[in-house]
Automatic annotation (TrEMBL):
Keywords: NAD, Oxidoreductase
Keyword Repeat listed: no
Protein name: Aldehyde dehydrogenase
Entry annotated with the keyword Zinc: no
SUPFAM superfamilies: ALDH-like (SSF53720)
Classification via InterPro entries: Ald_DH/histidinol_DH (IPR016161), Ald_DH_C (IPR016163), Ald_DH_CS_CYS (IPR016160), Ald_DH_CS_GLU (IPR029510), Ald_DH_N (IPR016162), Aldehyde_DH_dom (IPR015590), Aldehyde_DH_NAD(P) (IPR012394)
Entry-linked Pfam families: Aldedh (PF00171)
UniProt GO BP: aldehyde metabolic process
Family named by the database record: Belongs to the aldehyde dehydrogenase family.
Recorded GO MF terms: aldehyde dehydrogenase (NAD+) activity
Coiled-coil portions: none
UniProt xrefs under Gene3D superfamilies: Aldehyde Dehydrogenase, Chain A, domain 1 (3.40.605.10), Aldehyde Dehydrogenase, Chain A, domain 2 (3.40.309.10)
Domain Aldehyde dehydrogenase: 30-446
Organism: Smittium megazygosporum
Source lineage: Eukaryota, Fungi, Fungi incertae sedis, Zoopagomycota, Kickxellomycotina
């Protein structure tokens, strides 16, 4: 297939792009629910008519296999479109509050309407360039907003293709594209918007919040972080399944997943056996030669390759899988790497790895694990493998994270009936399904009082 060329938006055009969207919003075009349905159906056609091209673009950017692109990027967006089409009208129905505790308002006409917020700037990342652009966009359109989409310039093939397709399929009165790097993004963030939605690093997330503060815009941030796996209170026979689920959650997309497994805290007497099972799982999934495996991805760019290389080079742990001599900077190949006997304070625990490196740390007690997790930023997810109900209770009560999953990794992100989002340093706000309607709508209280009360009418009758 031919390669799309990513063209940057001229910075002098960006203010006009945003002002045109604002004018479209105030024209009332998005208030028509049938119009919104047509735009969602257009997104669905975009996918169905261009699946092969999208898969090819993601292969060029991240070496994703067709199966991985379909499973982790495309199918979830298809489902979200159908889910919104089937439900967004009822999710938008005005809500009547319970006034029974305030008799003075009994019988009053008070309701909460979910109305569009207006202009949304949506900035998406390179690691899931289709999914994380489209999933929030579906909810934004269903909620009646107009949107400026700014995709990552790093995933250039997918960004170039999707920019063209969005312009081709969606009404450009409600959706416009801005492409470019930090310069273009900076100019975009100077424009007045009602909501800024961003997925990416915490450092850039702070820039987004600062930009939003200038106009007091609402923000949605999905920022990731170091999502730990805690393995405690398991029988040895359960470690095989646990290892396979951990490796899947670590190595999908070559470890470049905001929700992905970052490191393991494992009960001391289970560590050695778990490491053996982790190594076995890697070889089962990606063979003895992952470089030749059609299912194994690549790092997005040399800058990220170098960062990961430095983290591993500085580690004092024992590399039990993944020889650093096999790394290939030119092809951006980093093999699945398991580092055992990592100590607290190690370079691999200093920042989010965002690559196929799995540090394993021994712990003496569940309280030690919780103490360590709580000393660090609240992660987007915590994964805990245990059969001990007291451990489950302790992890649930005494940690904070965007989500908490027992005995699995990442699977909750495919459920469209629950919100997807972080807490504190891992993000704010959430979307997916109904949560998208709630997040991208303004909940407006409307009260209608009568100018003439019953008392006034009776007074006129008898006087």
């Amino acid at each position: 297939m031919s390669t799309e060329i990513l063209e940057y938006t001229k910075v002098e055009e960006i203010p006009k792009i945003v002002s045109e969207l604002e004018a479209s919003y105030f024209s009332g075009i998005t208030l028509d629910l049938e119009f919104r349905k047509q735009q969602l159906l257009a997104l669905y056609r975009l996918i169905k008519e261009n699946t092969a091209a999208l898969v090819d673009a993601m292969k060029k950017d991240l070496n994703k296999s067709e199966f991985e692109s379909l499973m982790s990027e495309i199918m979830g967006v298809e489902y979200e479109i159908g889910y919104q089409l089937a439900n967004f009208e009822k999710w938008l129905v005005s809500e009547k509050p319970d006034l029974s505790y305030q008799p003075g308002y009994a019988g009053a006409d008070i309701r909460v309407e979910k109305v569009p917020q207006g202009v949304i700037i949506s900035v998406s990342p390179w690691n899931y360039p289709f999914r994380l652009t489209m999933l929030p966009l579906v909810g934004m359109i269903a909620a009646g907003n107009v949107v400026v989409v700014k995709q990552s310039e790093v995933s250039q093939h997918t960004t170039a293709l999707l920019s063209r397709l969005l312009g081709q399929y969606v009404d450009n009165r409600i959706l416009k594209i801005v492409n470019g790097g930090p310069k273009e993004t900076g100019v975009l963030l100077e424009q007045k918007a009602d909501h800024i939605c961003y997925t990416g690093s915490g450092a850039v997330g702070k820039i987004m919040v600062t930009a939003a503060a200038k106009h007091l815009a609402k923000v949605t941030l999905e920022l990731g972080g170091k999502s730990p796996v805690i393995v405690y209170g398991l029988e040895k026979q359960d470690l095989d399944i646990a290892a396979r689920r951990i490796i899947w959650g670590k190595l999908i997309n070559c470890g470049q997943t905001c929700l992905g497994v970052d490191y393991i805290l494992v009960e001391k007497n289970l560590r050695e056996y778990l490491v053996k099972q982790l190594v076995a799982a890697v070889k089962e999934f990606y063979t003895e030669n992952p470089k030749a495996s059609p299912d194994y991805g690549r790092i997005i760019a040399q800058r990220h390759y170098d960062r990961i290389f430095n983290l591993v080079s500085g580690s004092k742990g024992d590399v039990v899988l993944g020889n650093i001599k096999d790394w290939d900077r030119e092809t951006l190949y980093i093999p699945p790497t398991i580092v055992d006997k990592v100590e607290f304070g190690d370079s691999l625990l200093s920042e989010e790895i965002f690559g196929p490196i799995l540090p394993v740390v021994s712990i003496d007690s569940i309280s030690q694990a919780l103490t360590y997790v709580n000393q660090n930023d609240h992660p987007l997810a915590i994964y805990c493998f245990t059969n001990d109900s007291e451990v489950k209770s302790a992890v649930s009560k005494f940690t904070r994270s965007g989500s908490l999953v027992f005995n699995d990794t990442m699977m909750h992100s495919g459920c469209h009936s629950v919100p997807f989002g972080g807490v504190g340093p891992s993000g704010t706000g959430a979307y997916m399904g109904k949560a998208s309607i709630d997040n991208f709508s303004h909940h407006k209280t409307v009260m209608v009082s009568k100018l003439h009360s019953l008392d006034q009418k009776l007074d006129k009758l008898y006087h």
